Amino acid sequence: MKRNMLKQNMKNLVKVLLLLITLSSCNDKSTEPHVWYIEDPVPPLDEYPAWSPDGTRIVYSHNGIVNISEKTKWGYTYDVDLDRKGLWIVNADGSNPHMLIKSMGIFADWSPDGKWIVFETGGQIYKAPVSGDSLVMSQVVQLTTEGGNFFPAWSPDGEWIAFDSNLNDENGAHVISKIRNDASDRTDISQHGIGEWRMPHWSPDGKKIVFKNYINDAGELFIMNSDGSELVRLSHLSFFESYPKWSPEGTCIVFNNQLNPGSGIYTIHTNGTGLKRLAQGTHPDWSPDGSQIIYVKDSLDDPKNNTLWIMNRNGSGNRQLTFYHQP
Q1: pLDDT tens across the length of the chain (327 residues)
Q2: What does the DSSP 8-state code read for residue 145?
């Protein structure tokens, strides 16, 4: 758990540094808004997709990665174009990809009526109204102000937003919390003192929540009632399961594991049976009708392909949705 917390803290530090660099570049026109890295593997170019309730659009986090080199003995070199890094949106047919918020926005989710998008920036949860293909940032609402808060997920009735937070844990561990969409009635709904509880997602009827629980530094999937009662373990894979999403008809969960080499997209029935591997990738989400799954491809051979892809529910019919941008 401590190792996972350290990794998350390092990620948060990198995000803050990138934001500071971006702000300074906006004030100094002579500064090229790029950051150079050497790393293997290269992070995904696009991450954390969320399908709109009407099925027409997908919101996602774009990392602004450009100028990826051929692999050397030290790994890949690449740039991050801070003018392109941020929260983006694309039509479900791949057309009209464009930025919503520069240098902000991750772990986004749609309100059930499609009128709002909730997202995380700097460890706090925000929501903003959608107008056409844009967010109205003049009407942004900050829902949390303390602690580290991540992975917001809107309840099917639109009243609540679940997320994970370390605000009230004496060890700094994350537990599942929820808050009303007007920022009132914040409360922890999972237990403290028994690992970390992360990445919540609601059942279609709003009565249950699936989430990831760290057990001996491995992640397993659990289901509980939306008030935190009746905890049931779903997976027993020891594969470091992550990013569970409940299917729209309520019969199964899609998720990914990090069993090397690469991450895999799996589905499992809500009673723990029927485990099936679909593709190599991460960060899955369902189409509103449950017929398709969007995910981030995990290509071990070409990081330029680590973008958003869509496949049928059974793993067939893969097609690429977003593409590497070479300036």
Answers
A1: 434 444 444 444 444 344 333 333 333 433 467 888 887 789 999 999 999 999 999 999 999 999 999 988 888 999 999 999 999 999 999 999 999 999 999 999 999 999 999 999 999 999 999 999 999 999 999 999 999 999 999 999 999 999 999 999 988 999 999 999 999 999 999 988 778 899 999 999 999 999 999 876 678 899 999 999 999 999 887 678 899 999 999 999 999 987 756 689 999 999 999 999 999 999 999 999 999 999 999 987 899 999 999 999 999 999 999 999 887
A2: -
Q: Do the strands 116-121 and 124-131 form a parallel or antiparallel pair, or are they unpaired?
A: antiparallel
Query: Are the beta carbons of 198 and 150 closer than 8 angstroms?
Result: yes
Classify the C-alpha dihedral 220-226-230-234 as positive or negative.
negative
Decide: 230 and 249 in contact? Cβ < 8 Å: no
Residue 110, CA distances (Å) to 113, 116, 197, 287 in order: 8, 6, 22, 12
Full-prediction pTM beyond 0.85? Answer: yes
CB atoms inside a 10 Å sphere around CB 293: 27
Instruction: Reduce the secondary structure of 25-41 to three states and give it as a string.
Output: HHHCCCCCCEEEEEECC
